[in-house]
Amino acid sequence: MRILIRIVVILLVLAGAGYGVFKYKNQPQKPDYYEYYKTQDTTPVGKVGIFVTGLIMPEKHDHIFFYNVVHKIFKVIVPWPANKFAMVDKGVSLLDPEHVHSRKEFVPKHLEDCFGNDRDYDGTPYIVKYQQGQVFWKPPSKQLYLDHGYFIYKGRPGGQPSVCGKVANKARILYYDRVNTQKKLPHWQESFKIINTTFDRLKAKYPGIECRAESNMYYYEMKKKIDELLDAGCETIVLSSLMPVYSHFEDFNSGFRHCFEYIEEWEHAHPGKKVKVILSPQMGDFQPLRQAYLDMLKDRLDILPEGSSVTVAITVHGMPWDYFKHEAWLKLGPPYRDKVAEEVKQMLATTYKDKFSRTNVVVCQDEFADPIWDPKQKYLSTNRAYWSAIKDGYDYAIAVPIEFLAENSDTMFHHAMKCYENFKQFHLEDPVDYPDWSVPYTRTLVEDKTTVIYNGLPVGKYQPKVIEALYQSIDAVMAKRQGK
Prior knowledge:
alpha/beta; about 15% strand; Rossmann fold
């Protein structure tokens, strides 16, 4: 009996210690820059440098970008020790370009690694190594809805976490090649149009300021440009993000956190120098951004037939919110999202009160309102919003995606796969042709009697209002500058 009691005590101690380690390893990152954002002094002093960042995707495929994206995900949101197990180098990740998104095991005909090589270092084709029994199928992740499997060659390390190879390889083949007719994405070019035009306006109003920008997945370039601002004598750095809504995931624990780290490194290398850092208000706080999406929707509604019935879906990216209750988006996102929804309802009730037979407005999310992360359907997915409109017999269901400013791999491919699940006319590997980036990319699918329309993003003639929103968000800080 004493031995049994001792064993129980030991097990309880070990369990308690294990739980303690788990809690310690998964503490929220400190300092919490969302708390900093809420309590900061927003008056610039001395010479001002402006730095804009955000998750800006490269025009052409770049392995570094996707490698860093995967590392960010597993560092910022996946808890220890799951992140450590997931980021193991298990070998060389491989995909068959003809079956990139297969969810079931199959016999491949050709295999390539994430750099496009179809042979190993010794010159042997990976497909031959598969035939020799050295390449194995890895099934889709059980934690990601509609994920795909991949193959892995275990004869040597891949030189990176296997999941990095998997993600980057899919991006290389699918997003930037097979189904992308132009083989490039507009996100980088259109994002920097917004940024650079905003910088020109700010420089005209505030001569002497310094301005830099960089994608928050290019760490070396970020640090280099932050250093340039500080070496130029900037005493205040105003940070902004090209995201309508700030979040821990994209900003406070990613882009902004890196900026603070680089500024602190510079301060340590320059004793006696202290830099003031100000986070500008998010773009979604300013009406011109909402107006850009409203203008796009109005142009769409204007061409619909009289007497039609219309559902408008206000869509956001989405996260598994119940698992990240500390996420700043939960405070900063709804006021923006709900204001857009309110303004859409008002538009339908006034401008179009005599045109449509019935209307409906819903808010929904593209990601994580799925059977894995939201089995009780607490949150409305964009896919279910569409199917609800179809079931209810609406003539049109129009998606207004309010968290993106230019087309990217999510909007054109990854989110589309989830939003159009079970649509007869949607196939992930059908070609996507978007040659003119000066007009919004739209997608129209018909299911039963309902025409489902993805209404695109505010580029071209709608982009000036996006620029105005970024300008106003930074100018809200600059206007307080002392000694201006």
